[in-house]
Amino acid sequence: MALTTASAERILSACAKAGGVLGIGHERRYEPAMEEMRRQAESGALGRLLHMDANVSHSNFRKMHPSNWRRDPKHAPAGAWTALGIHLGDMFVSLAGQPTRVAARTASQIFPAPSEDFVSAEIDFANGARGRITCLSTPPFYGRFTLIGDQGWVEVQEGGNVDKGIPSSFVHSGKDGSRQTRNYDHTNTVRMNFEAWADAVEGRAPYRFTTEQLLANIRILDAVTRSAAADGKPITL
Fold first, then answer.
1. Rounded-to-integer distance, Cα 4 and Cα 220, Å
2. Are 110 and 117 in contact (CB under 8 A)?
3. 173: closest CA among 203, 148, 140?
4. Residue 81 near residue 119 (C-beta atoms within 8 A)
5. How far is CA 127 from each of CA 5, 34, 50, 131, 168, rounded to the nearest angstrom?
6. Domains in the chain, start-ordered, CATH in brackets?
7. How far apart are CA 126 and CA 147, in angstroms?
8. How far is it between the farthest Cα atoms of the chain?
9. Checking phi first, is residue 231 left (phi over 0); if not, alpha (psi -120 to 50) or beta?
10. Separation between Cα atoms, residue 154 and residue 38, nearest integer Å
11. Tens digits of per-residue pLDDT, 55-98?
12. Phi, psi of 79 (to 5 degrees)
């Protein structure tokens, strides 16, 4: 939506003034495995939310010329955060609420500087939960999202990037340590999001992305960028 908190605030203000519904392309919320993870969390089956840990990495940007905007820190700061981490940040906010503190580091491990191919951030939330997001721009595809409570945990693993149409695996561990595993088929989450947005625009149903959540996610991005530029100095939100 934006690269800075101030820009996001202007966008949201203009949308509210116009009476519109701002659509956002965070389709991960509509993935069946992610929706089951949310149901487990909201039902209380996991107990108190303690920690979230996610890593989505792929080598798609490795094939791009260094001049491509995806590898330009001016247009895509903090490595793959604007491409990958931003979607994970949205999931974190939707599950844990408002962020309060962010500490992040980036690196040019494979890409020549100033392009960055590594970013990792620790995020604290007002409800006491904590999280970590890591994204790399050079290894083969890897995707995992883990949600840990004091009464159990769930983990979603993806077999490939969303365009591959590969099923996701879902593991749930109960309080006694017993585990249940199942797979969820790929669905057209882009279409599902567009249809949900259209329903909201026409007043048939509320849109699941609230203004507070949209702003909180950009506040995380803004803080990740500033913290990484200061070699990991924590940013209080």
1. 9
2. yes
3. 148
4. yes
5. 21, 21, 9, 12, 29
6. 5-236 (3.30.360.10)
7. 17
8. 52
9. left
10. 10
11. 999 999 998 999 999 999 999 999 999 999 999 999 999 999 99
12. 60, -125
Q: What is the pLDDT of residues 130-152, one digit of tens each?
A: 999 999 999 999 999 999 999 99
**Region class of 178: left (phi > 0), else alpha (psi between -120 and 50), else beta:** beta
Burial of 102 (0-12, 13-18, 19+ CB in 10 A): buried
DSSP secondary structure string for all residues of 186-220:
---HHHHHHHHHHHHHTTSS--SS-HHHHHHHHHH
Q: Which residues pair with 39 in a beta bridge?
A: none
C-alpha span between 133 and 86 (Å, rounded): 10
Interhelix angle 86-96/211-229, rounded to 10 degrees, is 130
Residue 63 is classified by DSSP as: G
pLDDT digits (tens, 9 = 90+) for 153-171: 999 999 888 888 899 999 9
62 and 138 Cβ atoms separated by less than 8 Å? yes
> Strands 130-136 and 49-57: what pairing?
parallel
With vertex at residue 138, the alpha carbon angle to CA 132 and CA 125, rounded to the nearest 5 degrees, is: 10
Q: What's the CA gap between 46 and 149, in Å, rounded?
A: 5
Instruction: Write out the H or E segment, with its range, that includes residue 18.
Output: helix 5-18
Residue with tokens 């247009």: 75
Q: How far apart are CA 15 and CA 17, in angstroms?
A: 5
